[in-house]
Amino acid sequence: MTSTMTADSGTDIFRFSDEIGPKKIVAIHDPSCDLKAIVVVDNVGAGPSIGGTRMASDVTLAECFRLARAMTLKNAAAGLAHGGGKSVIFADPAMDPATKETLIRSFARAVGDITDYIPGPDMGTDERAMAWIEDEIGRAVGLPRELGGIPLDEIGATGFGLAIAAEAVEEHAGIGLRGARVAVQGFGAVGHHAARFLAERGAVLVAASDSRGTLTSRDGLDITALQALKAAGRSLADAPFGTVADRDAIIAVECDIWIPAARPDVLNADNVAALNARLVLQGANIPATHEAEEYLHRAGVISVPDFIANAGGVICAAVEYHGGTQSQAFSAIEDKIRSNTSAVLERARADNVPPRAAAVALARERVLKAQSLRRFA
């Protein structure tokens, strides 16, 4: 059962609304499998919205709103023929696989008629989950290779894009990659690929964290060994090398490049002063609060916004959706993220504003232009 939320629902669902969106908010409830979910279609000015399906026990309506808007800006900044949307499922992603499949398939059937939303993988979902959605409604991205997809998590599309953003920063701000010390907060699908691609460019991973702890080594961590540890279902805290600390210790690790690649708002007013880095590459969606972004700007730390730096995944998804190949996806990621990162840094320097302000201005201009060309956007 699905129901479209209204202002009479008792929830102030319009507190984030503006001339861009959101266009549509749908609440989903299927009592037969205890499915509870929300879909936000923020904007379709440039085309049907693309956005991941996130599964977590503590997701919120506000988080879904913010993530959908981030997708609108991300897709616009990347010049894709898609608007932004997002969906969240209120559940523990570590549940029994058969139960998870039942939940995802129920979700898919519920969003089948929301034709201006194309689901993709996100935290708590993966290529297999997208295969279930595709099987139910014939509409998903980030599919397994066996279904003709480009498995963006497997190939590390988002991590590759972060490395390209770092190269663009190197050209504009002189933060070299060879020998650069990297710390990754959230050593998952995005974080470990980012570390790998940066290592290929001469950087050194000196710290990484997951939900159970932080692992550090001044001489550098073995990325392949860490990947094997995670693939075996173990924590970085179980590594037989390096120094283990609590998970929040990652914030104060001395490094050149700091990558948040986990949950929203991990950098905030309470902890941002402890950050000891020259460059923040936002691998996660909305990983920093407004106060944290302002602090970084005043402190002279370059922070490349999420919807610029981590757009590799959705660029790959769009290439897949339109029938492109993996090599075309990597080429598009490199071209779009390099040029967009450069444009944002140049605009931020010229206007003396934080990179996020420059990026939002650039993306909003593109969204509004797209809307002006459509009758029912």
Walkthrough of the structure:
The protein is of the alpha/beta class. It has two domains: 138 residues, 3-Layer(aba) Sandwich (Rossmann fold), CATH 3.40.50.10860; 209 residues, NAD(P)-binding Rossmann-like Domain (Rossmann fold). 40% of the residues lie in helices and 18% in strands. The protein has twelve helices and 13 strands. Strands 10-9-8-7-11-12-13 form a seven-stranded mixed β-sheet. Helix 1 links the parallel strand 4 and strand 5. Helix 2 packs across helix 3. It is globular, with a radius of gyration of 20 Å.
Number of helices: 12
* Mean pLDDT over the full residue set: 93
- What is the assigned CATH homologous superfamily of the largest domain? NAD(P)-binding Rossmann-like Domain
Spell the H/E element sequence.
Answer: EEEEHEHEHHHEHEEHEEEHEHHHH
Q: Radius of gyration, Cα only, in angstroms?
A: 20 Å
Read across the widest sheet, the strand sequence of neighbours is: 10-9-8-7-11-12-13
Class by alpha and beta content = alpha/beta
Helix content: 40-55%
Task: List the topology elements.
Elements: E1 2-4, E2 24-30, E3 35-43, E4 49-56, H1 61-77, E5 84-90, H2 97-111, E6 117-121, H3 127-137, H4 152-155, H5 157-173, E7 181-185, H6 189-200, E8 204-210, E9 213-216, H7 223-231, E10 243-245, E11 257-260, E12 279-281, H8 290-298, E13 302-304, H9 306-309, H10 312-321, H11 326-351, H12 355-372
Parallel strand pairs: 4-5, 4-6, 7-8, 7-11, 11-12, 12-13
Antiparallel strand pairs: 1-2, 2-3, 3-5, 8-9, 9-10
Helix pairs in contact: 1-12, 2-3, 5-6, 5-10, 5-11, 10-11, 11-12
